[in-house]
Amino acid sequence: MSQSERLVLATRYRLVSEIGQGANGTVWRGHDDLLDRAVAIKELRLPADLTENDRVVFYRRTLREARAPAQLRSTSIIEVYDVVIEQGRPWIIMELIEAPSLEQLIERSGPLPPDQVGYIGRRLLDALAVAHRSGIVHRDLKPSNVLLDGDRVVLTDFGLAFSSGSASLTKTGHFMGSPAYVAPEVAAGEKATPRSDLWSLGATLYAALEGKPPFERDNVMATLSALANEQPPTPRNAGPLASVVTGLLEKHPTRRLTHARAVDRLERALTGPRSARRAGAPRLRVMAVIALAGGVVASCAIGATALTVGMMREQPDPKPSTAPPPTVAPGPNASGSLLVKARTAGCRIFVAIPGDTLTVLANNETVPVGSARRFDQPRLNAVVYDSSACEVWVNGRKKPLGGPGERRNYTVRASAGQ
């Protein structure tokens, strides 16, 4: 165990394990010993060559990242619990959401259906309404900053958020934000406004429907050039959401949909004959859990750097459908099966049969040392949380062991012969 993993912040926040790194720091899974709950902890590292003035700016930006969502009360906005200064650097204590980001779902599943995107968009409009009423502009809304936790859609990473009551911390000439999702007026150097967030929402919904953002190019300069000089392409897969997306992607802020008009158009689209409003939320849950089974991430960005984190849910998933009980076998498996043997303590697994109705066979289950769990199904998705603690056989072939604490995903197909 490293020195950091033994660290306890403010005598109560214990670092449990590292779950991701970025250019500016580390995200940890932690535990609040006082309230006995799991938390996410963002450790922000200051570059060694910072001047004293830059160090002050860094601290202020950190506090702003924490204060912005802390002022807001919405199930669609990440909850921040605390900020502490330890070992000369800031640490942000926040809600631990073990769920995939919209970006990961798009990468895994490709373009999403309009009813699902509409449901996500409606929840994000709710989150933006709460933020904008409090004078807070997010400034970095994009798929990697949207988490899908069952029916819950959560907006994260307020590291670039701007409050009307605070001074700007962005240096002149420095571009902040994600070029593929930034509003044209912000890219041109103008101050971000609530309508800038609505543009970013439109680009995010476009990416969910089409598989990529509207102005994405091979490099930053090409993306910014397209943003400045080209009209947004017409979405091909938007269906009833087309008028919402094109209205949000109006280049001139005054012609762009207002929040109220966006809500109205989206509500009409969701209640139209081609949509399935009531099915939207359950479908979101199924898609999110399938993404969990195949490789979950939570986006915990540090500053302007997106940091992807592999995590799994530990609460009950959708009620499993009836399935044959798995049997235990001591040796290698046959085709279409998975065998997990516990080498040491900490062999913990998630196993499910993918499909329109997810069948969960093992939900965050710990296999006793010396025991084995065998699953015989033509299709399986599995996650092993500590691949050094488990011996894994897929279709009769032994998989290599991983490092301590390393999470690995496995896909079983009867004909794959993995």
Characterise the protein shown here.
- This protein folds into three domains: about 5-95, Phosphorylase Kinase, domain 1 (2-Layer Sandwich), CATH 3.30.200.20; about 100-310, Orthogonal Bundle (Transferase(Phosphotransferase), domain 1); about 335-415.
- It is α+β, with helices and mostly antiparallel strands and about 425 residues long.
- It is globular, with a radius of gyration of 23 Å.
- Mean pLDDT is about 75; it is low at about 160-175, about 275-285 and about 285-335.
- The protein is built from nine helices and 20 strands.
- Helix 2 (about 100-110) crosses helix 9 (about 275-295), helix 3 (about 115-135) packs antiparallel against helix 8 (about 260-270) and helix 3 (about 115-135) crosses helix 9.
- The protein has helices spanning about 50-70, 100-110, 115-135, 185, 195-210, 220-230, 240-250, 260-270, 275-295; strands at about 10, 15-20, 25-30, 35-45, 80-85, 90-95, 135, 145-150, 150-155, 160-165, 300, 310, 335-340, 350-355, 360-365, 370-375, 380-385, 390-395, 395-400, 410-415.
- Strand 2 (about 15-20) and strand 3 (about 25-30) form a beta hairpin.
- One of its GO terms (molecular function) is ATP binding.
- This is non-specific serine/threonine protein kinase.
- Keywords: ATP-binding, Kinase, Membrane, Nucleotide-binding, Serine/threonine-protein kinase, Transferase, Transmembrane, Transmembrane helix.
- Its EC number is 2.7.11.1.
- Pfam families: Pkinase.
Write the CATH architecture name of the largest domain. Orthogonal Bundle
Number of strands: 20
| Low-confidence runs | 160-176, 274-283, 285-333
The CATH class of the largest domain: Mainly Alpha
Mass-distribution shape: globular
